[in-house]
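User: Please fill in residues for this 316-position structure.
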């Protein structure tokens, strides 16, 4: 049988088949996935093959195969510095929620997030939330940012989780997909998820009660089915989107507008900083690349952005 992992608690995995049957499964043998040194072989979102075993009149599953991952997000393991913990796999899209104020979301944060998502091969959609509260100046800021990010290929939607403005649009985008929601504390993630699926509120509370009883001290992800053929992965306690180690030369590849131009630079190892005949600098001078994006690029390449290179999961 084949199913998707919805939850993992230590050695047991909750797996749901396409027909909607749920089985508690264990792993048989060792799983080694090329290039990943991880503390957990299987993560929420993984597609696995398993066989049923009957034990005390109860059917449990034994997982013997894991399907290739489309993508996955990791965090560094707390104890073993070289190992990573896979938080979730096979994520179709992440909605990055942004607010202009209360709290402010800066472009350096947005761009760092987008770079990480690009490195993970996860599509990002920007949701500008709380538009019901903005004055003309803040709305102009939203319009400007939406223009900047649409131009380089990111879908942008202005929403209000409290009035429901454009929430149907978000639901339409979620249909048939596995989504995650991210953004600073206070941007409205819980409010939006509640607007999308009011009954989900209950489940999230159940989990945190479990936490309080001390059953799980570490954070873990969980997948939820929504009522309209959409799935979300909730990652309680995990803020931000982690970090990916990358070489200076690689950073530009995760800025779509820089990646597109790099073939036109004189040097093929151009870092777009001081080099002569640099197509990126030229585009910047012609206002074809947003200055805020280039500034974020420099911050990451020059390592000014300390948080970028440290593991900042959970302590935003
Ligand atoms: N006016 C207005 N308020 C909103 C909107 N969305 C969320 N809020 C309010 O913003 C506050 C924070 O919202 P939450 O949904 O708790 O934010 P969160 O992103 O889940 O925050 P964390 O759980 O800390 O990560 C709450 O008081 C919400 O009522 C919106 O679209 N408009
Ligand atoms: Zn260049």
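Assistant: Residues filled in for all 316 positions:
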């Amino acid at each position: 049988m084949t199913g998707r992992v919805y939850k993992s608690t230590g050695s047991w995995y909750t797996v749901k088949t396409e027909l909607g049957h749920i089985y508690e499964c264990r792993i048989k043998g060792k799983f080694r996935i090329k290039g990943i040194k991880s503390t957990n072989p299987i993560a929420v979102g993984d597609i696995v093959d398993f066989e049923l075993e009957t034990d005390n009149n109860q059917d449990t599953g034994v997982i013997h195969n894991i399907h290739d991952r489309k993508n996955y997000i990791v965090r560094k393991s707390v104890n073993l510095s070289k190992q990573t913990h896979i938080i979730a796999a096979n994520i179709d899209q992440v909605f990055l929620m942004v607010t202009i104020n209360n709290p402010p979301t800066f472009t350096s944060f947005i761009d760092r997030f987008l770079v990480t998502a690009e490195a993970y091969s996860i599509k990002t959609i920007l949701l500008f939330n709380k538009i019901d509260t903005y004055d003309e100046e803040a709305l102009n800021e939203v319009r400007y940012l939406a223009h900047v990010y649409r131009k380089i290929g990111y879908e942008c939607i202005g929403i209000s989780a409290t009035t429901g403005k454009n929430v149907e649009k978000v639901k339409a985008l979620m249909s048939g997909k596995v989504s995650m929601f991210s953004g600073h504390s206070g941007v409205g993630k819980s409010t939006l998820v509640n607007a999308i699926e009011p009954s989900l509120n209950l489940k999230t509370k159940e989990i945190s009660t479990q936490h309080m009883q001390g059953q799980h001290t570490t954070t873990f992800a969980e997948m939820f089915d929504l009522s309209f053929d959409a799935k979300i992965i909730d990652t309680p306690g995990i803020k931000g989107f982690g970090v990916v180690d990358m070489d200076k030369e690689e950073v530009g590849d995760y800025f779509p507008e820089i990646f597109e131009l790099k073939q036109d630079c004189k040097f093929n190892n151009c870092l777009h900083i001081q080099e002569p005949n640099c197509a990126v600098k030229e585009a910047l001078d012609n206002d074809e690349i947003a200055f805020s994006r280039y500034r974020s690029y420099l911050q990451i390449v020059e390592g000014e952005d300390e948080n970028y290179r440290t593991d900042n999961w959970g302590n935003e």
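For context: Residues 2-88 form a domain with the OB fold (Dihydrolipoamide Acetyltransferase, E2P) fold (CATH 2.40.50.140).
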